[in-house]
Model the fold of this input.
Amino acid sequence: MFKEAVLKDQVVVITGGGTGLGKEIAKICAEHGARIAICSRKPEHLEAGRAAIEAAGGEVLTGLVDVREPARIRTFTGEIMERFGRIDVLVNNAAGNFIYPAEKLPLRGWKSVIDIVLNGAFYCSQIMGDRMIRQQQGQILNIVATYAWTGGPGTIHSASAKAGVLAMTRTLAVEWARYGIRVNAIAPGPFDTPGASSRLWPTEEMQQAVAGEIPLKRFASTEEVARAALYLLSPYADYITGECLTIDGGGWLGKGIGHAVDHLDKFVELREASKKARLK
Ligand code: NAP
Done:
């Protein structure tokens, strides 16, 4: 994306970095000179991530970490420090999600998603942020979603957690600016990953219906979303902090009465018919 190695020698940690968007961000950061650490719960995901990062020419450390467990995050942070000596970037990407009506949502489902998305992002930010504070330099990038501010019918657990992470982004951007730490977020609309498609649009028909709601009429590719992440992590965004960059093909703006754009001819027809009726 950039001609220069904009992340040369930077140490980038990505939670959930072995699959989907996390893996794509890991790859693009490696291609731009970064050394990478990824963590998640499943060894097969970490191995897939390792292979992709190494194929992109990057050096990688993997760690079996459940972000709900601060003790394990602390151990992994120690392993990163031992291997690379510093932490320049933390990407809070790990998440879980599924669709369920709020009134029937099992409390363990609510707790699990809040624990992974909101608590996990805070634990990682506090523990790895401590290294950045000592370095007087660093960056945190949080992956949220547009329903952090629109609300997310059918995914109240994830929407509530992402809203919390967005508030955390803005709060830490101000509190930690004095340590030279920038904190930003990206808010993608839907993009197709095995994790998302199996839980959020399990049929072709559902996927098309979701895409049909987006003004650009398609999902983002994971690469498009990863490029936005790289931009915020690059020196070209050095003066940006506390910001949330939306990459959703106009999706959230298209909500509300935005659906009218798909039926403009019909609206004109109805208006003309009512005018004629009034003149009679
Ligand atoms: P994904 O492939 O399912 O990625 C989720 C990752 O999180 C997996 O690598 C998973 O690895 C890891 N993870 C889950 N629970 C964990 C835990 N307790 N501890 C550590 N790691 C954990 O999903 P994706 O579609 O790429 O989503 C990536 C990010 O984008 C998420 O933050 C998601 O909310 C956000 N997002 C996605 C979409 C979309 O349409 N796809 C839209 C908006 C925002 P393990 O299973 O190995 O733990």
About this structure: The longest strand covers residues 181-188. The pocket of NAP is lined by residues 15-16, 18-22, 40-42, 45, 65-68, 93-97, 116, 143, 145, 188, 190-191, 193, 195-196 (CB under 6 Å).
